[in-house]
Write a structure and sequence with these properties.
The structure holds 2 protein chains of 2 kinds. By secondary structure, chain A is mostly beta strands. In chain A, 0% of the residues lie in helices and 50% in strands. In chain A, strands 2, 5, 6, 10, 11 and 12 form a 6-stranded mixed sheet that branches. The chains are: A mainly beta, B mainly beta. Chains A and B meet through strand 5, strand 6, strand 10 and strand 11 of A and strand 4, strand 5, strand 9 and strand 10 of B.
Chain lengths: 116, 115
């Protein structure tokens, strides 16, 4: 069965500093990987996805993520965070059907706090 | 274009009652999925429907059921509510254009509190 681990429950970053959120997955084949962001009381917004090809993917809001098969990781990065980036971030892995019949498996999330 | 819309946004029920949650997908999307997000956790997959047929089911008891209508909207029903059913219920739609292209767009959710 597929699984996702986000080792950091909370991360605090100063505004303007760089950010890296960690994600490790377990899946028997080539995974479909996603990062979603959730603001308080809101649904999930897709930041970026990896299906195949270039292992460095660009997303919205200046985020990027790198797929490393050897490390089973898909870490999210941003060079300079803004106060509006404070939110809950979820990494997810999809089955070959891309999150269809088997659904997406989400990690428990990382809560990002931005210090002024 | 309107996004995924869910109703109601908040509701309170008591143990043993039944609840129905509703979801309208993005226009043109034929697939609807339901997820349960307990406070402090990531969403968990409950169901996926495509073209009015159940295509996938997560590890949830039979108290949970769903259906999809000809206009692709969907309802999630939960019977005999337990305190542990308190959660944010998220609906997501997708166009299901092909293998690997199933990007989900989520609604804002329905917050269910069971007392």
């Amino acid at each position: 069965a597929q699984s996702v681990t986000q080792p950091d429950i909370h991360i605090t970053v100063s505004e303007g500093a760089s950010l890296e959120l960690r994600c490790n997955y377990s899946y028997g084949a080539t995974p479909y990987l996603f990062w979603y962001v959730q603001s308080p009381g809101q649904g999930l917004q897709l930041l970026l996805k990896y299906f195949s090809g270039d292992t460095l993917v660009q997303g919205i809001k200046g985020f990027e993520a790198e797929f490393k098969r050897s490390q089973s990781s898909f870490n999210l990065r941003k060079p300079s965070v803004h106060w509006s980036d404070a939110a809950e971030y979820f990494c997810a892995v999809g089955s070959y059907s891309g999150g269809g019949a088997d659904g997406l498996t989400f990690g428990k999330g990382t809560h990002l706090i931005i210090q002024p | 274009d309107a996004g995924v819309t869910q109703s109601p946004t908040h509701l309170i029920k008591t143990r043993g009652q039944q609840v129905t949650l509703r979801c309208s997908p993005i226009s043109g999307h034929k697939s609807v999925s339901w997820y349960q997000q307990v406070l402090g956790q990531g969403p968990q997959f409950i169901f996926q429907y495509y073209e009015k047929e159940e295509r996938g089911r997560g590890n949830f008891p039979d108290r949970f059921s769903a259906r999809q209508f000809p206009n692709y909207s969907s309802e999630l029903n939960v019977n005999a509510l337990l305190l542990g059913d308190s959660a944010l219920y998220l609906c997501a739609s997708s166009s299901l254009q092909g293998l690997g292209a199933n990007v989900l767009t989520f609604g804002a959710g329905s917050r269910l509190t069971v007392l």
